[in-house]
Automatic annotation (TrEMBL):
This is Aromatic ring-hydroxylating dioxygenase subunit alpha. The keyword Cytoplasm does not apply. It comes from the Bacteria. It holds the Pfam family VanA_C. Keywords: 2Fe-2S, Dioxygenase, Iron, Iron-sulfur, Metal-binding, Oxidoreductase. It comes from Microtetraspora glauca. One of its GO terms (molecular function) is dioxygenase activity.
Amino acid sequence: MRNQWYVAAYGREIGRELFARTILGESLVFYRTTSGRVVALADRCVHRRYPLSESRLEGDTIVCGYHGFTYDQGGTCVFVPGQARIPRTARVASYPVVEQDSFVWVWIGDHDRADPSSIPRAPWLDDPAYTSVSGMEPLAARYQLLVDNLMDLSHETYLHGGYIGTPEVANTPITTEVDEDRGIVYVSRHMADAECPLFYAKSTGIEGRITRWQDIEYHPPCLYLLHSRIAPVGVLPNADGSDPGGFHVEVVYAITPETENSTHDFWAVARDFALGDHEVSDFLAENNRTVVMQDVVALNLLEKVIATEPEGYQELSINIDTGGLAARRILKRMAEAGAAPARPSEAVPS
Ligand code: FES
Ligand SMILES: [Fe+2]
């Protein structure tokens, strides 16, 4: 799906050094101009294919490290060595970029369809009312496996036992809703009385059992939000929606295909408590990275299994898979519609 916004990087990753990252099979080079704007260009010199990311920045231009072809921020060649005339076709592709919510979003498809207002939001990540930790792990598996994984959190009980998983996660049924018009999948699991996993016990300081809510909101293809609410057992939000007794964690994943069989797994954890507390931040970063790596190891295995399985293998799905199946259906619909943002007129009945 090329006509979509994808997270290419965290803003902090892009500076005055040339930065290479492959998105949807396309090698891109990123940098920040002297005025602070992020630029994305194809990472291949038009002359003899030398990677521009292995070249150097001169002001706001890239000077190719092989023979010196020089490109401006729009990818137009402004200098070639040994002659005054610059060939008309001397340009590399440039890509629309938007920096928002600490992410650098890039649009790989047709430029005239790149509408920044269609980028889904994760405002907690640069909101001073929250403290965030984040990272990115390379995944040697197709992005669809990560979508499946995140849409069904019952795996927390088994794959992440002792970290974020407790028996109640797998034992509590989910509710799934799909906003067909906006193409968003919601999956909720509300546990009234659950064991408190280490992840939350240590970060919130709650001792004893908890009320634990998991409300997933998936904006296909790239952005996944898990609104997590934890409180001492029985403590609920007030009727007016205020929730002084609750601890809120916004878990954000950006799921960006690198190639057909590999994925950039961006993860972030934003909290509205223990603000600025470095000990809590270090614990959550370390613990969440461990959890992410447990998924990475499992999904890398699945990718290998898929590569060797015979044609026509049939999976078996059960109730816990409802959210994942809804996500697959929307992704398929988007791919068939040429990846235009979902509109009711394009809805394909399931
Ligand atoms: S390959 Fe870039 S200038 Fe020759
Ligand atoms: Fe997981």
